[in-house]
UniProtKB/TrEMBL annotation:
Keyword Iron-sulfur: no
InterPro entries in the record: PBP_domain (IPR024370), Phosphate_ABC_transporter (IPR050811)
Record keywords: Signal
SUPFAM superfamilies: Periplasmic binding protein-like II
Domain PBP: 37-271
Stored Gene3D superfamilies: Periplasmic binding protein-like II (3.40.190.10)
Protein name, per record: Phosphate ABC transporter substrate-binding protein
Species: Flavobacterium gilvum
Length: 307
């Protein structure tokens, strides 16, 4: 009988041990705002800044992100279909889009963290580094001029196409002398090899080019743009972003549809916080809130006083 009791006690101890181990593993796997694994769907035109934010976040916390780079339309579809829970977009959600989420009983938490822009680029052989926005829009509507042989976009579903179509009042791009490739880097490469073509890209790919793209960037001009019915030409620089003079500005947002206190909340708070805003500033884009600077004033005696 005593042997049977000992067996029961042993089995109880083993059961309690594995139950505790299971609970520890479950707790370890719970996602919090600073710990766990998550996937972020990213508008391809702003991938570099998101990579920077994620890299620093991961270095500070026990978190791991997978980045899925897609066109704006694909990112939005992934959110609607609940395939994506966290996304980065180059615009805010519209009232119609928010209504769609409301119908699914989803309340997206939207955090603005940076100001980006759309840039026009040309081949280095083109000595004219100025372009009027009205000429680009006119070209999109079928008006031809000697300055532009063709427009080159990344892909038909991208945020740059959507942005420019909205400005031009168009539903879709024309097939005549307007080309769609796949990525911003492909646009830059195409323009560097073809005189007279104007590329339309996200500024982030110019402010943070990949090492392999540096030779390509050296073969293109970034054009200064004149706004609609406005004097002056302005470049896609931090200074002109800050002054609001560059005519092709857009805001960057983190859209969090997790509905819980997970990594979506963590990365959004981080990107909008002091460290995240400094990362944006260093990237060449404009932070939503310019980080404050601390000056340490050291009071000391002058040489005359020391004597």
């Amino acid at each position: 009988m005593s042997g049977y009791k000992n067996f029961l006690i042993l089995m109880s101890v083993v059961f309690i041990f594995f139950s505790c181990k299971k609970n520890e593993n479950e707790v370890a796997g719970v996602e919090t705002i600073l710990k766990g694994k998550a996937t972020i769907y990213v508008d391809e035109t702003v991938l570099p800044i998101v990579e920077d934010e994620v890299m620093v976040f991961e270095s500070k916390y026990d978190a791991e992100f997978s980045l899925v780079s897609k066109s704006e339309a694909e990112v939005l579809n992934s959110l609607y279909n609940e395939k994506a829970k966290i996304a980065v977009l180059a615009r805010d959600l519209t009232k119609k889009e928010l209504k769609l989420f409301e119908q699914k009983k989803i309340v997206p938490k939207i955090t603005k963290f940076a100001i980006d822009g759309i840039a026009f680029v040309s081949n280095k052989s083109n000595n004219d580094t100025l372009i009027a926005l009205k000429d680009v829009i006119g070209f999109m509507k079928g008006e031809r001029n000697s300055k532009i042989k063709g427009l080159v976009f990344d892909n038909p579903n991208s945020s740059t196409v959507s942005y420019m179509n909205n400005l031009a009042g168009l539903d879709a791009l024309s097939d005549k002398d307007i080309y769609s490739l796949k990525t911003n880097n492909e646009v830059l490469k195409f323009v560097s090899e073809n005189d007279g073509m104007i590329g339309v890209v996200g500024v982030n790919w110019l402010s943070q080019p990949e090492p392999s793209m540096e030779s390509v960037i050296s073969k293109i001009n970034v054009l200064s743009v004149q706004g609609l019915n406005k004097p002056g030409y302005y470049s896609p620089s931090q200074n002109d972003f800050a002054e609001g003079t560059y005519p092709l500005l857009r805001d960057l947002y983190i859209v969090n549809c997790q509905g819980t206190s997970g990594l979506g909340m963590g990365i959004a708070s981080f990107a909008a916080g002091d460290i995240g805003q400094r990362i944006v500033l260093k990237s060449g884009l404009l932070p939503n809130k310019v980080p404050s600077r601390r000056l340490n004033i050291i009071s000391g005696k002058s040489n005359k006083e020391k004597e």
